[in-house]
Amino acid sequence: MPNNMKTKKIPMRMCVVTREKYPKKELIRVVRTENGVIVDPTGKQNGHGAYLKKDLVVFEKAQKTKILNKVLETEVPETVFEQLKETLN
């Protein structure tokens, strides 16, 4: 068998604030689950998700514009934004 070196496909996702595509590792996922809205650092939780660039400015803009409320079709609690900011530290 020939040893074909396949280039690993990098999963790309779109930030809901900037509308730009980034590698999944550069983004953080926020998910609407049955138990409410949570920050999903693993990116594997079940539920309707939205991606945000790991950037304080992006988090603050998402909070001001309430874009996550629209995308996730639910009210996003302030605690989610606090958790997002903690992920940057």
Can you describe this structure?
The protein has 89 residues and is α+β, with helices and mostly antiparallel strands. The chain has a single domain, classed as YlxR-like (Hypothetical Cytosolic Protein, Chain: A), CATH 3.30.1230.10. It is 29% helix and 27% strand. Helix 1 runs antiparallel to helix 3. The longest helix is centred in the C-terminal third of the chain and has 10 residues. The mean pLDDT is 93.
What would a concise description of this structure say?
With 89 residues, the protein is of the alpha+beta class.
Classify the secondary structure makeup into a structural class.
Answer: alpha+beta
The CATH architecture comes to: 2-Layer Sandwich
Low-confidence stretches: none
Q: Using the coordinates above, name the CATH class.
A: Alpha Beta
Helix content: 25-40%
Give the radius of gyration: 15 Å
Terminal Cα span:
47 Å
Question: What is the topological layout?
Answer:
Blueprint: E1 12-14, E2 21-23, E3 27-33, E4 36-40, E5 48-53, H1 56-65, H2 67-72, H3 78-87
Antiparallel strand pairs: 1-2, 3-4, 3-5
Q: Which terms would index this structure?
A:
Hypothetical Cytosolic Protein, Chain: A, 3 helices, alpha+beta, three-stranded antiparallel β-sheet, 29% helix, two-stranded antiparallel ribbon, 5 strands, 89 residues
